[in-house]
Amino acid sequence: MSDQGVSRRKFLIAGLGVISGAIALGVGGAAVTSIGAPAMTNKREGKWVEACNCTDLKAGEFNQLSITYDAKDAWLDGKIKQLVYVKVAGDDILALSATCAHLGCNVNYDEQTGGFKCPCHSGAYDATGKNISGPPPRPLTRLAAKIEDGKLKINTATKEA
Amino acid sequence: MFARIVDALDTRFTFKESFQKNVLDHPVPPRVNFTFCFGGITFLLYVLLAVTGITMLFYYVPSVDHAFNTVEYITFDLPAGNLVRAIHHWSANLMIVFIFVHMLRVYVYGAYKNPRELNWITGVLLFGIVLGFGFTGYLLPWDQKAYWATKVGVLMPESLPIVGGFVTKFLMGGDNIGALTLSRFFALHVAVLPIITVVFLVGHFLMIRRLGIARPL
């Protein structure tokens, strides 16, 4: 008799635990997925953006360009503005994102060195975008760029495409 | 490992014995059956509504130019968002059903009688609050159904004597259903009503603890 009593009690407790656990896992899982998902899925996409007419560019030196492009921001149709430095020398196009590799300020062109200097923490880069002094841990991001029909197009992907 | 953490906490808070006595080994009258679960199920649904509601609070924007778009985003773009919203929807509907059968059970068993009158009274107030949840929540998606249902709902109190006109204007936040209606329904739905509900629930539950559940027939 007592054996039966114990096993029934244990069975009920275990059953209660399983049902509670299933509900908690189901609802908790859905909630955690919903709240956490944008960190994985809400990515900024790289796309080709028309930056300017090539005739406007000064050859052989850095041109500061501001490119604006449409970007979906969850339920909003937003725009992203991005600063880039472009140097065209013959067939070579060097397009550098102006976003400092340290904490994301926009770097300025430095006429004295021909490189770039960040106004926030004095990070410095040379003319190829390589980090030469200060806190930046890596070079400025090189963006893919091409000239089509006399227009300069820049790919907004953070990595070189 | 887990047992050691529990023991360490127990030496500080001494909760183990009273938890064992009051929850796990809590005596209940004989012949208690599954109909005594309906109140607990209603509370479980309230917890589910709170969890899924807080989840949607991460995305929902209570303004007339974004409300519908954010609900659309939750439903169609957000991973598991549709599931979260569906659980919220069905828990809300089932809550009304389970409150009804809970009240029916309490009525048939005469469990509302002395000394449990106040349980019945707080319960009826809670039922009213839940209907308030339903009414305010229905507007939030800001679609045609929400708008016109609210239009019908806010005009009902207008037929009250003397105060009717004011009640309607108070609910709408003026003469129109618009930005102010949406934001005040939102505030009621996610802040005011939940807090009032918890206050009454604590009373409702504490009285059950003190008085025990009524003996079955």
What does this structure look like?
The complex is a heterodimer of chains A (161) and B (217). In chain A, 25% of the residues lie in helices and 37% in strands. The model of chain A has no long low-confidence stretch (mean pLDDT 84). Chain A has 161 residues and is an alpha+beta fold. Chain A is elongated and about 85 Å long. Chain B has one domain: Cytochrome Bc1 Complex, Chain C (Up-down Bundle), CATH 1.20.810. In chain B, helix 3 (38-57) packs antiparallel against helix 5 (81-108), helix 5 runs antiparallel to helix 6 (117-139) and helix 6 packs antiparallel against helix 9 (179-211). The model of chain B has no long low-confidence stretch (mean pLDDT 94).
Describe the structure in brief.
The complex is a heterodimer of chains A (161) and B (217). Chain A has 161 residues and is α+β, with helices and mostly antiparallel strands. Chain A is 25% helix and 37% strand.
Write the layout of secondary structure elements.
The complex is a heterodimer of chains A (161) and B (217).
Chain A: H1 2-41, E1 48-53, E2 63-73, E3 76-89, E4 92-97, E5 108-110, E6 115-117, E7 124-125, E8 131-133, E9 142-143, E10 145-148, E11 151-155
Antiparallel strand pairs in A: 1-11, 2-3, 3-4, 4-9, 5-6, 6-7, 7-8, 10-11
Chain B: H1 2-13, H2 16-24, H3 38-57, H4 67-77, H5 81-108, H6 117-139, H7 144-155, H8 164-172, H9 179-211
Helix pairs in contact in B: 3-5, 4-5, 5-6, 6-7, 6-9
